[in-house]
Amino acid sequence: MAEKDLRINNFDLLRILAAIQVVISHGFHHLHLDKTGTLFLFIEKFPGVPIFFTISGFLISASFEKNPDLRIYFTNRALRIFPGLWVCVLFSILTASIVGGVNFLNPVTLPWLLGQFSIVQFFNPDFLRGYGTGVLNGSLWTITVELQFYLLLPIMYLLIRRNPKGNNIILLLMILFFILAIVHSLLPFTERQNKFLAVTFLPHFYMFLAGMLLQRWKAYKSTYIYGKAGIWLLIFILYSYLLPDFVSKPFFGKLILAILTISLAYTIPWLSKKILHGNDLSYGTYIYHMPVINMFVEKGYTGNSAVFLYALIITLILAGISWRFVEEKFIRMKRKSLRIADF
Predict the structure, then answer these.
(1) Residue 29 to residues 119, 141, 303, 318, Cα–Cα distance (Å)
(2) How many CA atoms lie within 13 A of 150 on its CB side?
(3) First-to-last CA distance in the chain?
(4) N or C: which end of the chain has fewer CB within 10 A?
(5) Residue range 176-211, pLDDT digits in tens
(6) Are 99 and 314 in contact (CB under 8 A)?
């Protein structure tokens, strides 16, 4: 039987598949393609963002447990997130200026740019509303949420430090935030309030905690998880298609998806390295796909599936360039812990 090693996994492969799922979802929506096809509806059952949040909780908690030095922890997180993000923001500005003739020489640009370069990536000023989809890069709200997770993780470990029931505390918090996410979906918030809550950790934290808990339970060694992706995939599909819809169904579905994600990571765990050879294009794919889609929308190239394929290919090329010339170089500067591409 193969050795069950935390570091031998398919997370790079799962992340790129999750990123492509997001590209498909956004591409079909903004390019006005048919969203009623069986294949598209099947792909929509596997939302990429919850997969990212689960993987992040799993791997970042493992990294922090190995090296809890806060200076190293935050330096490593910054090196992974910001260099690639900053180059992408500049690319977005360049393409919006050339393709859409957007004028960035106005008083709002500087505060907006500072937000893009820090933790307020979700803010989109009015002068960008006329370009493309109306939002320069609508996917970046998840970066804001992810950065909140990074800030909360050390606090979580303060709560459970030297506590023999630490995992029970995490489980209780996961249940509480799970309930909070359901309540949030039911309460009659205004659109503005919903948009604000969506860019906070509150409705998403249970997915991160699920990943953290699966890591601390050493799920990758469990006979119920390791090598059992086929079983969990069947459970997830049966749950998604056969159970009648109810209010909390999507939320329970994301918890099953969290278990499936970890099981996939440790089923044939060498597959990712064999296919990707250590290259991680997921982050670049995620952050570049909307600037690319915006260019096609701005030019009116919609309603054609070939356009989506062009957008996907261009996105993957940009992701490869970002990984090779930006992200990988800064990852090599990280102080040693686990080799993790967080998002």
Answers:
(1) 27, 18, 10, 21
(2) 21
(3) 31
(4) N
(5) 999 999 999 999 999 999 999 999 999 999 999 999
(6) no
